[in-house]
Structures are given as structure tokens and as C-alpha cells.
Amino acid sequence: MRKTATTPAGGTIPTQPGPRDATGASAPAQPPGPQSGIVSADGLDGAEGDMNGVAGPAGPDTDAVILGAGPSIRPGERATVRLRDAGPDDPPRYAPEWLELREGADAAARAHDLLDPLRIRLANLPGRAGLVIHDVGCGTGSMGRWLAPHLDGAQHWILHDRDPYLLHFAAVASPRSGADGSRVTVETRRGDIGRLTADALKGASLVTASALLDVLTREEVDTLAAACAGAGCPALLTLSVAGRVELTPSDPLDPEIADAFNAHQRRSGMLGPDAVTAAAEAFAEHGATVQVHPSPWQLGPGESALSAQWLRGWVGAAVEERPELRERADRYLSERLAACAAGELHVVVHHSDLLALCRPTGGAS
């Protein structure tokens, strides 16, 4: 399913930023399942390893552009790939290759300090034979692959995404057992976060999401907080951008690129780097106890493929927001990519993880 395009010489940013020549991308090797259905993680062919035809992580070739890793096509649109059979009104699809490329850095960055208070809350849930976990905006399911092995007891994951292709990947590659060997099963639901309600979360033990809050509006964050509070379930929301980036060695253009990128993140009402603060306020207003911990990407020479793709997207979004940066940004990107290829660049992309312990319903303490 991998499709690549060649970056202009020297890392020059394309005049029309965004995924290039995406119309030729192919569909998954197997068609997605129904929009909603129970899938046992114990009996799926290909559930371990190749994700039913999805190519592995990108190699060290920093000239290859993974579709979906670059800046967005239109203001406010997340990094996506459009499939050949997509209609004009179909939502854009997120590139599985980019999600897979970042999965290792995501797993290393997530705040382990939030796991103990979460486990304590889950252990004290009344009258539950197992955990029911809703993963909102699940993508290819990386959150479940990280979190399920950290939790004891039987788990049933309900994966929410509006893209049936990503739901299929997430179900196929879901973990099969929890920390104590208990069974993990999966259900997929196609839908939008704006429709999430307390009724939809009835019986939930936990709501979780990864890299989601910063692309939501304040209204959507309020909807999420209200739904979790109404259902009385905690929320673990990880890897929201914090608006701060550190590159070593530094460059005088770093602050300008960062400021332009942050402005781009706030387009169309999205919260961008303000998301964690807004979410903490929203959950607190509903009576939840909120903890926030840093979860930075730490990218060195061993993560050069991810650093290169991130750089293209970061700089490209900045130029889309402020076109007057283009000439200087072309030089900047070329030099940064060269340093990355030489193993001389270190990048820290700051994120935050949030745990909201909503007041349980049904008389629980």
C-alpha cells in the first residue's frame, strides 16, 4: 500500500503543500469489515506482523515522502491520503504508513506515571467482569497495542473512527491478551466524535485517545468531557501537541517556523497547542480530577526516518500558514534534512498526556 513521491532536490517545499500524487494509492489487501461488529483478537489471520498487507515502516531513505506525513491539502485538514475510489464527499483518509512510522516514538513518549492512578480506578470499578475501553479516533490502533498489555483482566476494546480502512487495520493488529494473559477482544464502530454521548459510553470503563485533542474544536472537547462525565468513566488522552519544539543544533529560524506551525494548528477553530488546557478545564468543570504529564518525542539518529517526515510536515505547514517564509524555509528544510541524514540532528517534540478521573456513576466511590 506504500506510495512515495520524490522530494524536490535539496528538500524544497512543494508549491502546493500536502501529500503529492495521492490519487494512485491503493486500498488495503483485504476490504474493511462492517461498520460495526465484534471481532475476536484471538482468531484473526494476520493479526500479528504484517497488518494484512500494510507495508512496514519506512526505511532510512529521507527522500521518500510518506503520504499523509506532510502538511495538509486545505486549511484545517489533517494529514491524509485520498484513495482512488473515494467520492468527492467522502472524508479524507489518514495514511496508515505515517501512523505506523510514528508508533514507536509514541509508545516511548506516553506518560507511564499516569498508569498507576488509572489502574487503581479501574481496579475499584464495581460489578464489572472485565474492562470496556472506548478508543476514540483509533487510527490503526496503536493506543490499544500500547495500553492493553499494561492492564490486567479481560478487556473489550471498542474502536471508534470515521475511516473504515483504519478500523480494519486496527482490528486486525489488535493485541490478543492483557498484562495477566486475560483475553482482549475488539469491536469497531464507524462514527464521528461530535456524536459521542453518555449513552454511547454506557457501561464504559475507560475512554482513551491518542494524538486527538489538538485537532478538535473547543465544542468537540466539551462534548467529549460531558460524555465521559455522564458515563462516569475516566479518560486517558495522550500525545497532544504542546506547541514547543527543540532542535539541536539550533537555528535562528526555529522560533518563526514553530510560531507559524502553531498558528496553522489553530486553523478552522481547532485547539492545537491549547487543547490540553481546554480539556483540563472542560473535565474539571464536570467534576473530574485531572492530571497532566509531559510526553515528549525524543528523536535522535535512530529515528531519522520519522524526524525527516516530521520536518517536512512541520515546515510545510508553517509555509502554508505564512507563505512569506518560503524562500528561507526551503534553505532551512534542506539543511535540516541533511543534518538528519547525517545523524547530527536531535529533535524534541513536546506533547502532553491527560488523565481525567470522572466521578463514577451508580454509587461507586
Helix proportion range: 25-40%
- Mind summarizing the main beta sheet? 9 strands, mixed
Count of helical segments? Answer: 9
Shape: globular
Question: H/E series, N to C?
Answer: EEEHHEHEHEEHEHHEEHHE
Mean pLDDT: 78
- Helix- and strand-based class? alpha/beta
Termini, distance in Å? 49 Å
Number of strands: 11
Uncertain runs are 1-88
Computed CA radius of gyration, to the nearest angstrom: 20 Å
Strand content: 15-25%
Notes on the structure:
- The chain has 365 residues and is of the alpha/beta class.
- The chain has nine helices and eleven strands.
- The strands form two sheets. Strands 2, 4, 5, 6, 7, 8, 9, 10 and 11 form a nine-stranded mixed β-sheet that branches. It has a two-stranded antiparallel sheet with strand order 1-3.
- Helix 5 packs parallel to helix 7 (275-285), helix 6 (254-265) packs across helix 8 and helix 8 packs antiparallel against helix 9.
- The protein is globular.
- The chain starts with a strand and ends in an 8-residue tail after the last strand.
Topology overview:
Layout: E1 4-6, E2 36-40, E3 64-66, H1 96-109, H2 115-123, E4 131-136, H3 142-147, E5 155-161, H4 164-172, E6 184-190, E7 206-210, H5 218-231, E8 235-248, H6 254-265, H7 275-285, E9 289-294, E10 297-299, H8 304-321, H9 326-341, E11 346-357
Parallel strand pairs: 4-5, 4-7, 5-6, 7-8
Antiparallel strand pairs: 1-3, 2-6, 8-11, 9-11, 10-11
Helix pairs in contact: 5-7, 6-8, 8-9
Keywords:
alpha/beta; two-stranded antiparallel ribbon; 11 strands; disordered N terminus
Quick gist of this model?
The protein is of the alpha/beta class and 365 residues long.
